[in-house]
Amino acid sequence: MAAPRLLFDEHVNVTAYRQLQTAGVDVVHAVKVGLGSTPDPEILQWAIDQGRIVVTRNYQDFAPLVQNLAGRGIPFPGALFLSASIRQNDVGAHVRVIRGWIEAFEAGDTSVTNSFAWLF
User: Ramachandran region of residue 73, left (φ > 0), alpha (ψ -120 to 50) or beta?
Assistant: First the structure.
């Protein structure tokens, strides 16, 4: 199975993005690719166009967008929601849960294609 391609939205810790990217994870950050302050529907569409799973702390805005796509049968790479229990400034927790999810994904134990998952 191919490694997942991720897009961190602007609500996800930039330092965690850098650490994961340095470790070889295929991840980009919305701010670093010119999507800072971009409306969420456009961020999701960019992720779809690029074949990237959105990683966000912004469940309130992204969940309805994801549900809309799924309800209309529109394929999309998926979304990962970081739990509020993971503090924004806890870089280690961000890296740990994302690496754990990637390991499960690569083992075929999880997928978010056309869906979403929570990271705790």
Answer: left
Which pairs with CB-CB distance under 8 Å and at least 24 residues apart come from 37-40?
Answer: 37/10, 40/9, 40/65
C-alpha–C-alpha distance, residues 119 and 81, integer Å = 6
Q: Collapse the DSSP code of 17 into the 3-class scheme (helix H, G, I; strand E, B; otherwise coil) and give the result.
A: helix
The amino acid sitting at 37 is S
pLDDT in tens, 4-62: 999 999 999 999 999 999 999 999 999 999 999 999 999 999 999 999 999 999 999 99
CA nearest neighbour of 98 among 47, 1, 24 = 24
